[in-house]
């Protein structure tokens, strides 16, 4: 009686390794499912170097599933991982890359500012992390969009927001939110616009009345000019400057 040789099945991957992107500091399991005649030898490599069980990596083999576990992902864990299967009938190999995604964090923060009416204000901050990024700016939790009075921009790992012709109503808390696939972070700064909360038309009327009153009282030309200029300077308004040119006290041109 003769017996035929028992057939051995070469190893193969039912579920091969795939490319992965995981968050910095997270738990990661790089796994695949295999088949073939036992015993099967499993060898793991990272960037061509052997991976062994230890403090950093834990190698798991259970039923038809094999894996490498990393308890806390670090930047140095990024790379190409491969799994090689070998038995008496042959061998096969599967590989996949691991990318470590870093949540955004701020390197420099925007600074709180004080501004005068009709001026331009610019907030800027820099950050780090894994691109691509989404950047949003807010005023008191209301999102700001680029328009005639506001412009937002992103330049590499820095972003900025500009406000034009600011008024007292622009005073408040401004915040920047930076997001990517790994997370989101937010910072804020305050803006204080100095000056009287008057509209340009109100300022024009006030300056006109001030001019008439100064010319009606018995002040010297020097006093009238000094008071008029001081009030206009205090208003910090373009309209005040225009009215000063339009209604100059007699001594303004020579003081």
Automatic annotation (TrEMBL):
UniProt keyword annotation of Disulfide bond present: yes
Domain annotation Ig-like: ranges: 11-99, 104-192
Classification of source organism: Eukaryota, Metazoa, Chordata, Craniata, Vertebrata
Gene Ontology MF annotations: axon guidance receptor activity
Name the record gives this protein: Ig-like domain-containing protein
A Pfam family: I-set
Matches recorded under InterPro entries: Cell_Adh-Cytoskel_Orgn, Ig-like_dom, Ig-like_dom_sf, Ig-like_fold, Ig_I-set, Ig_sub, Ig_sub2
Organism of origin: Dissostichus mawsoni
Swiss-Prot/TrEMBL GO biological process terms: homophilic cell adhesion via plasma membrane adhesion molecules; synapse organization
The UniProt record lists the keyword Glycoprotein: no
Keywords: Disulfide bond, Signal
Assigned GO CC terms: axon; neuronal cell body; plasma membrane
């Amino acid at each position: 009686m003769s017996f035929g040789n028992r057939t051995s099945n070469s190893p193969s991957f039912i579920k091969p390794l795939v490319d992965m992107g995981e968050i910095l500091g997270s738990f990661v399991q790089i796994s695949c499912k295999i088949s073939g005649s036992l015993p099967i030898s499993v060898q793991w490599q990272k960037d061509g170097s052997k991976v062994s069980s230890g403090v950093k990596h834990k190698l798991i083999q259970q039923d038809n599933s094999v894996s490498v576990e990393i308890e806390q992902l670090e930047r140095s864990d990024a790379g190409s991982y491969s799994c090689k299967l070998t038995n008496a009938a042959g061998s096969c190999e599967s590989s996949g890359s691991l990318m470590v995604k870093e949540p955004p964090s701020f390197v420099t923060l925007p600074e709180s500012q004080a501004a005068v009416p009709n001026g331009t204000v610019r907030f800027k901050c820099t950050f780090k992390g894994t691109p691509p990024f989404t950047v949003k700016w807010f005023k008191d939790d209301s999102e700001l969009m680029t328009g005639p009075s506001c412009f937002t921009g992103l330049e590499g790992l820095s972003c900025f927001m500009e406000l034009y012709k600011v008024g007292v109503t622009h005073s408040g808390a401004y915040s920047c939110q930076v997001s990517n696939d790994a997370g989101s972070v937010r910072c804020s700064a305050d803006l204080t616009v100095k000056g009287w909360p008057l509209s340009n038309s109100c300022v024009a009327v006030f300056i006109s009345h001030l001019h008439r009153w100064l010319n009606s009282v018995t002040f010297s030309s020097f006093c009238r000019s000094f008071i008029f200029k001081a009030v206009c300077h205090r208003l910090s308004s373009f309209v005040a400057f225009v009215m000063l040119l339009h209604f100059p006290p007699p001594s303004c041109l020579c003081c």
